[in-house]
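Hi V.,

Quick status before I head out on leave. The structure for the redesign project is tokenized and pasted below; the design run finished overnight.
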């Protein structure tokens, strides 16, 4: 009988030292501030939202990817036109597994299409505004959409094409809402800047355009849920079962009308704090809608979030119904968990995923008895790691000033506080926190390694030194990790799996991780450079 070799365990401090050893002194000093060990006495501050050091192979995306690919990509009835080379439009269209479900075959669904002006050399030299106008006219003639969104890429910013002027011209000519985003890829530190730009423009040009109020006693918006692998479908199912009306999602399985009527909801719930907290803040200021942080990743987290929503509305009928739904859903979850737990207990994981996913998915691993050795964000800010209480201490640098900060004031006609100050204070006293996010680090085990903006070298080194049972990140890291003999779960777009949100999603995730950590295929394989470590070549002289 084969005896499994025990893993040599290095201390977190020793791992950090090894990671920094390869860098030149100046680079090492900067990276040292971006690698934090939880539970350290000296300081809890981590450096985040700073530009990647040139020459390092980062795992980040660009500002354009965050704006078009993440925020607007999941909306089915807005024609999203990329003004730029075809590669940008194709990348932002292809690499996400946003799903949508049109009510009928006649309802608009533009997600299967990639719209681009396909800029060529002559457009860079002579300007591409006329080509953009023609693209808008062509798209309108073909599809007759309710709205169009135009996205600027790097070349557009460099040559000075005015996408906003074109949008205004097309809005007047076509009689539909046309708006643009100055989301050139280089404009910010990462895709986080694109989220902010997208939030600003959607809030300015769409939210509040339609005052139609949906029927329902308990109306909420779900912000920061992008329906990867069908997550939003499961969340919608649970909310509907509880009797909660979802006015809009930002922006999984979303529509233009959802954005336009979002201001009629009574509560905003925030899933991905980083990508959407801007909208939550602005909607509270302008329309009086409070927001709370929730998490539908993990069965216990889902139950907790439903209870928070019910507590906010304070209706015993809703509170009782939520408990009934939890009682109905949890037995199936527990049955699957009981099945997988003996195989997953004691296993280890690493998570380096954008937004709040590197935090949320630790809930699921905890439920399976697994420990997160290391985690981090591609585009997090300090408040995503440490909590919103650090926001006043965050210094505004030149990159942050690139992004417009909207001056929002209460809407004279529509501002209506959903709860009085006294009611909010009472709910706070009962434990329901508003405008609050405690961040990822406080919930992690002492001695865990938190790394902002992980790069390819560090990922390989972490796997080599700590030998996790599973590594979770994005498509760019997938194959290099697998070649090191470790199963890799893609949590940006779930590979071909999902949904992983809610109760049914938890069951799917339990089974998937159990399958991956018990498979021996990865530990039994060797990378090409391990099987043939010597390079050979033949020189032919003419």
């Amino acid at each position: 009988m084969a005896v499994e070799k025990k893993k040599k365990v290095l201390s977190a401090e020793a791992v950090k030292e090894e990671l920094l050893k390869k860098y030149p002194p100046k680079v090492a000093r900067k990276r040292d501030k971006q690698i934090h060990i939880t539970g350290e006495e000296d300081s809890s501050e981590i450096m985040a939202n700073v530009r990647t050091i040139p020459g390092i192979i980062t795992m980040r995306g660009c500002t354009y990817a965050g704006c078009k690919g993440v925020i607007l990509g999941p909306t089915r009835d807005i024609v999203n036109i990329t003004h730029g080379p075809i590669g940008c439009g194709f990348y932002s269209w292809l690499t996400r597994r946003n799903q949508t479900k049109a009510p009928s075959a006649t309802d608009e669904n533009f997600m299967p299409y990639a719209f681009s002006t396909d800029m060529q050399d002559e457009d860079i030299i002579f300007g591409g505004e006329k080509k953009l106008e023609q693209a808008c006219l062509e798209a309108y003639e073909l599809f007759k959409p309710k709205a169009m969104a135009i996205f600027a890429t790097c070349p557009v910013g460099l040559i000075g094409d005015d996408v906003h002027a074109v949008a205004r011209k097309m809005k007047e000519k076509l009689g539909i809402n046309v708006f643009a985003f100055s989301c050139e890829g280089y404009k910010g530190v990462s895709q986080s800047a694109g989220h902010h730009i997208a939030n600003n423009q959607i809030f300015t040009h769409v939210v509040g355009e339609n005052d139609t109020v949906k029927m329902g006693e308990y109306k909420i918006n779900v912000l920061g849920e992008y329906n990867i692998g069908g997550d939003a479908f499961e969340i919608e199912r649970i909310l509907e079962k509880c009797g909660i009306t979802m006015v809009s999602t930002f922006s999984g399985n979303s529509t233009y009308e959802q954005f336009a009527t979002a201001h009629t909801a009574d509560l905003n719930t925030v899933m991905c704090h980083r990508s959407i907290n801007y909208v939550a803040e602005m909607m509270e200021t302008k329309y009086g809608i409070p927001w709370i942080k929730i998490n539908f990743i993990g069965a216990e987290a889902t139950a907790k979030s439903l209870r928070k929503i019910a507590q906010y509305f304070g209706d015993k009928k809703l509170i009782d119904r939520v408990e009934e739904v939890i009682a109905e859903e949890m037995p199936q979850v527990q049955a699957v968990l009981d099945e997988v737990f003996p195989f997953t207990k004691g296993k280890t994981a690493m998570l380096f995923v954008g937004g709040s996913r590197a935090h949320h998915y630790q809930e699921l691993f905890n439920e399976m008895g697994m420990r997160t050795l290391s985690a981090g964000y591609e585009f997090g800010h300090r408040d995503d790691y440490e909590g919103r209480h650090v926001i006043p201490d965050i210094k505004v640098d030149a990159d942050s000033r690139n992004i417009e900060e909207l001056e929002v004031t209460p809407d004279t006609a529509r501002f209506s506080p959903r709860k009085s100050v006294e009611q909010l204070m009472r709910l706070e006293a009962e434990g329901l926190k508003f405008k609050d996010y405690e961040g990822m680090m406080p919930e992690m085990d002492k001695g865990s390694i938190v790394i902002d903006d992980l790069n390819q070298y560090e990922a390989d080194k972490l796997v080599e030194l700590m030998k996790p049972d599973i590594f979770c990140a994005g498509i760019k890291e997938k194959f290099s990790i697998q070649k090191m003999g470790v199963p890799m779960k893609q949590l940006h777009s779930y590979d071909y799996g999902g949904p992983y949100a809610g109760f049914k999603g938890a069951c799917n995730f339990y089974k998937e991780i159990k399958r991956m950590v018990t498979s021996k295929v990865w530990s039994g394989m060797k990378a090409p450079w391990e099987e043939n470590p010597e390079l050979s070549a033949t020189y032919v002289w003419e």
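Above is the designed sequence. The two ends are 59 Å apart (CA to CA).

G. will cover questions while I'm gone.

Best,
W.
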